[in-house]
Amino acid sequence: MTRSAVTALEQADRNLNTTYKQLQVKLDKQSRAKLLTAQRAWLAYRDADALLTGDIDARGGSMQGMLVALRKRELTISRTADFKRMIEHIAGR
Predict the structure, then answer these.
(1) What's the CA gap between 33 and 22, in Å, rounded?
(2) Predicted local distance difference test score (pLDDT) of residue 1
(3) Structural domains of the chain ordered from first start
(4) How far from 59 is each of 8, 42, 84, CA to CA, in Å?
(5) If you write DSSP's letter for every residue of 55-69 in order, what string do you get?
(6) 3-class DSSP state for residue 28?
(7) pLDDT digit string, tens, across residues 32-73
(8) Residues with Cβ < 8 Å from 46, sequence gap 6 or more?
(9) CB–CB of 88/74 below 8 Å?
(10) Do the Cβ atoms of 66 and 60 come closer than 8 Å?
(11) Which of 4, 7, 12, 21 has the maximal Cβ count within 10 Å?
């Protein structure tokens, strides 16, 4: 089960990276720098939040790793959707 969750997270990460690059090319230099800063902060948040979720739900248990991966995947999918909305907003200007 953990392996499946990690595989799903890896796919979500690939989708996020692709969408990030699509957004990045639509931004000017100043906005790209802000995007990079925001993304670094978001990654730290995602990882910390997922660790907290795993700790609360299954501290030390065999499911903890799976729960961490599932939470990271959930947040990553949401972030990808945020980026897609930004791209659509830029296109609509």
Answers:
(1) 15
(2) 83
(3) 2-21+30-91 (1.20.1270.180)
(4) 22, 24, 34
(5) HHHHTTSTTHHHHHH
(6) coil
(7) 999 999 999 999 999 999 999 999 999 999 999 999 999 999
(8) 72, 75, 76, 79
(9) no
(10) no
(11) 12
